[in-house]
Design brief:
The two termini are 51 Å apart. This protein has an eight-stranded mixed beta sheet. α1 (16-32) runs antiparallel to α5 and α5 packs parallel to α9 (227-242). By secondary structure, the chain is of the alpha+beta class. The protein has 15 helices and 16 strands. The structure holds adenosine-5'-triphosphate and magnesium ion (MG).
Length: 417
């Protein structure tokens, strides 16, 4: 017996309609926001994530699935979606297409984490990325897109936002942070000691209780923003206010990845405990340049589909029922079974969900099975039916029957009479 790898999940056939529902909602939101789908490979050269996500992050430092391929290249399964999209953007010269370039993706992502509820080693993200605009309107639009996606799914999550400034204000802030953390450093975790040297901002994101406690009184980045970043943040907040979108400013949101600048945000659900962040995003104005492209602003978010499904299931969200056969056609012997086969084939050609027997069951057993499937109509083809050129269509919900010629079944079913 070979089991599923640790930290991964199967989606069974009787559950997949939930995934399709969430993915359809993602596609529908993307459609009205004029975002177009982009698909990038599941694996990339490791260097992309080292440079794009940042070597001081947990994702790159501890969580990547990295291996050498048979040609001796270092390959990594994508731990997130943005770096690949940025790479393809640069590689395909999309900077010369009309701006902004608005994209979305639905992708698996891989992180070697300690598996727990809402934290897997393979998980899935719906993400959007908008390239080319530095306007606060775009920040607001991205936040709205995330909010309407969650609303569509009936997921209640609070919005927390922050600004982590640009290179200029951040280097000032990092100095301020170092001054603050220096006297506490002895009591902090090993990772924070490294962060202190390489990227003090990350210390605000530590999950260790003691480090968290110390970080609580650290100076706030929102008090240290340069004039432009401060104005930008104010603008974004005004736009959210203008649309009545509620949020709180949380100065501890720094996001797990290094490429963020200015606006960062998370949607957090209180329904699923520690892994409550269902969607995270922000601006990453430095990423394209850092990956060798021109200097070009960008912003996006990624929502974790597994976490959304957990919230939806915990709150009894409504999932539209999976499709059921509209008609089950039963046959009795070789000749009538073959007729059932051809009637079903014709209906399927026209888009009707039609089912027939595959198990050589008796008529009685077929009807029982049709009932289990939830077929709306059932037709039994016997010798008489063959001779008459038609069937009795039985409506399973009210028991009514109607004689219908073989050639009229489609019209009858689609009229719903
Ligand atoms: P966390 O702080 O929970 O580890 P993160 O900051 O690492 O999250 P992001 O890189 O921003 O997460 O990814 C965006 C979203 O993807 C998260 O908000 C979450 O919903 C989902 N996600 C991230 N890691 C996992 C995982 N290991 N398993 C399931 N979903 C995940
Ligand atoms: Mg993480």
């Amino acid at each position: 017996m070979i089991n599923i790898p640790k930290g991964t999940k199967d989606v069974l056939p009787d559950q997949s309609y939930k995934w399709q529902y969430v993915e359809n909602a993602a596609r529908e939101v993307s459609r009205v926001y004029a975002l177009r789908e982009v698909r990038t490979p599941t694996f990339e050269y490791t260097e992309l994530f080292n440079r794009g996500v940042g070597e001081t992050t947990d994702v790159v430092g501890k969580e990547m699935y990295t291996f050498e391929d048979k040609g001796g290249r270092s390959i990594t399964l994508k731990p997130e979606g943005t770096a690949g999209v940025a790479r393809t953007f640069i590689e395909n010269g999309l900077a010369s297409s009309p701006m902004p370039l608005k994209t979305f993706y639905i992708t698996p992502a891989f992180r070697y984490e300690r598996p727990q509820a809402g934290r897997l080693r393979e998980f899935h993200q719906f993400g959007i990325e908008i390239f080319g605009s530095s306007a606060p309107q775009t920040d607001a639009e991205v936040i709205f897109a995330a909010s309407s996606f969650l609303k569509k799914l009936g997921v209640k999550a609070r919005l927390e936002i922050n600004s982590i400034g640009c290179k200029t204000c951040r280097s000032e802030y990092n100095k301020t942070l170092k001054n603050y953390f220096a006297p506490h450093l002895e009591q902090m975790c090993e990772t924070c000691k490294t962060r202190f040297e390489k990227n003090p901002l990350r210390m605000l994101d530590c999950k260790e209780d003691n480090c968290k406690k110390i970080a609580l009184s650290a100076p706030r980045i929102t008090d240290c923003l340069c004039e432009e970043c401060s104005a930008h943040f104010k603008n974004v907040k005004n736009l959210l206010d203008g649309q009545g979108l509620q949020y709180t400013v949380n100065p501890f949101i720094v996001r797990g990845l290094d490429y963020y600048t200015r606006t960062v945000f998370e949607f957090v659900s209180d329904e699923i405990g520690a892994q409550g962040t269902v969607c995270g995003g922000g601006r990453y104005d430095g990423l394209i340049e850092q990956l060798g492209g021109s200097s070009l602003p960008a912003i996006g978010f990624a929502a974790g589909i597994e976490r959304l499904l957990i919230v939806m299931e915990n709150t009894g969200a409504h999932f539209p029922e999976a499709d059921k056969p509209l008609i089950y056609i039963a046959g009795m012997d070789e000749e009538t079974r073959s007729k059932a086969f051809s009637v079903a084939a014709e209906l399927r050609q026209k888009g009707i969900i039609a089912e027939i027997d595959h198990m050589s069951r008796s008529v009685k057993a077929q009807l029982k099975y049709a009932d289990k499937l939830g077929a709306k109509y059932v037709a039994v083809i016997g010798g008489d039916e063959l001779a008459n050129g038609g069937v009795n269509l039985k409506n399973m919900s009210d028991g009514t029957q109607c004689a219908v010629k073989f050639g009229d079944i489609y019209t009858y079913l689609t009229k719903g009479e």
